[in-house]
Amino acid sequence: MAEATTVKKPATKGYFYALGRRKSVTARARLMTGKGAITINGKSAEDYFAGSKSLLSELAKPFNVLEQNNKFDVTVVVSGGGMSGQAVAIRLAISKAFVVMNEDFKQTLKRADLLGRDPREKERKKFGLKGARKQRQFTKR
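The structure corresponding to this sequence follows.
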């Protein structure tokens, strides 16, 4: 029987795949051994997020927690939502891909709060109202 701390060999595809979601965003990530390059929709992460340090640090969190910097390349296809939601969805997809690769990472990522999906969604507009909750101004007299 294999030792519990070993890293799984990727399937015939050569990568580990995971899906991450946030609001209306869907991110599909592929994790493979490499030098730390993150490609999002065919562009580098720096170009895609226009050099935003906060969004780029969001992507780096799973690597920092697991101390796996510059060991893996990530290719992501993301659609929907805005930049911040996309960054969180990509972070979740990368974290899940690490768990697919090695089950021992699950505890560490869970403690760092990187495996939970944010369930908040946009509330639908109701008929008779201006928005989800906004109503017409009430006049007493």
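The first strand starts at residue 16 and ends at 22.
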